[in-house]
């Protein structure tokens, strides 16, 4: 991933919009994938299942 990609805090992600998310903390960067936020839960893009973690960052999915 290029260093110039702008990431935003996960709590600012729009509801019901598919975005690229990641966890970036003291343990490193991981779990980078497309998710949809619906309130406090994060779902797979088709809303078929939610994830058991909360991402730390997001960016628009069309920034690839």
Shape, principal axes of CA atoms: globular
Overall domain count: 1
User: Could you give a short account of the major beta sheet?
Assistant: 5 strands, antiparallel
Mean pLDDT: 93
Order of strands, main sheet, comes to 1-5-2-3-4
Q: Mind telling me the C-alpha Rg?
A: 11 Å
Tell me the span between the first and last alpha carbons.
9 Å
What share of residues is helical?
under 10%
Which stretches are poorly predicted, pLDDT < 50 over at least 5 residues?
none
Count helical runs.
0
Order of helices and strands: EEEEE
Total strands: the figure is: 5
The computed structural class is mainly beta
Indicate the proportion of strand residues: 35-45%
Characterization of this structure:
The protein is mainly beta and 64 residues long. The chain has one domain. Helix content is 0%, strand content 44%. It has no helices and five strands. It has strands spanning 8-9, 18-25, 28-38, 41-43, 57-60. It has a five-stranded antiparallel beta sheet with strand order 1-5-2-3-4, with no helix packed on it.
Summarize the structure in short.
The chain has 64 residues and is mostly beta strands.
SSE layout and pairing:
Blueprint: E1 8-9, E2 18-25, E3 28-38, E4 41-43, E5 57-60
Antiparallel strand pairs: 1-5, 2-3, 2-5, 3-4
Q: Which structural traits does this protein have?
A:
single chain, 64 residues, mainly beta, 5-stranded antiparallel sheet, 5 strands, 0% helix, globular
